[in-house]
């Protein structure tokens, strides 16, 4: 909107705060996505082939926790750096077409549309399970899935729909909407506190500085990000190690440091 001149007020992108996406997106969504999948299906994750689309903050959280449960994990990415990171973190990287017949459980976390489409549903295994933890209900092409099932859709458990494609059945959790909200309770308060603190302090920042701000997108001021981390540590009763005067002089000096 800013680039198109369509933004009429200043915006602070709270998601870009480190104390938001490193924790809410990664650990909050990582945990609550698994919570939603398990509440809906009660499957055993250990030993399953799990495909995660998107290796951003949300995807990384889901992948690390799936891996911790003993899944074999494959990542799908469009970004070469993130694909490489996933590979060197120890996961397989495949295209959607390669992953579709391999996976037992598919989770999307890309923020994009129609990551899994008609041809991918057609090549999935009988009994495959799909869930989305990214963007609304847009990441799976549900119109195509419904069309393939030709009306042969039934509820097999609370929050699980089975699509009979004739010869095989595919399962969809929480209608392809955010699985951690549709089939579980979202993130614990112990991580949302930092997201809400960023929102509150950013709103205060806009209120206090509105005369200097333009109608564009601002990052959360570093001081707010650091303050949220400080407050969270204090709430947890954890102390930071202060630098000695010698260390402070050393790290700020160009004569002594490397
Ligand atoms: N479920 C929740 O509670 C929750 C919480 C936070 C964020 N989100 C949502 O999760 C989504 C991801 O958030 P994030 O912080 O990880 O964002 P991000 O930008 O860090 O990561 C998204 C990743 O998906 C990749 N990607 C984009 N299109 C792709 C495609 N077609 N195939 C494969 N990979 C693709 C990008 O390259 C990127 O690495 C967003 O839609 C966000 O709104 C959900």
Description of the structure:
The chain has 258 residues and is of the alpha/beta class. Helices cover 42% and strands 16% of the residues. It contains ten helices and ten strands. It has an eight-stranded mixed beta sheet, with helices on both faces. A two-stranded parallel sheet has the order 1-10. α5 links the parallel β5 and β6 (129-132). The protein is globular, with a radius of gyration of 22 Å. It starts with 10 loop residues before the first strand and ends in a 7-residue tail after the last helix. The mean pLDDT is 97. The structure holds nicotinamide-adenine-dinucleotide. Nicotinamide-adenine-dinucleotide (NAD) is lined by residues 21, 25, 29, 53-59, 76-79, 82, 109-112, 115, 133-135, 178, 180.
Mean pLDDT: 97
Distance N to C terminus:
43 Å
**Total strand count, please?**
10
Give the helix tally: 10
- The percentage helix is 40-55%
Poorly predicted runs: none
Radius of gyration: 22 Å
**How would you classify the helix and strand content by structural class?**
alpha/beta
Which sequence of SSEs, written as H and E, runs from N to C?
A: EHEHEHEHEHEHEEEHHEHH
Strand residue content: 15-25%
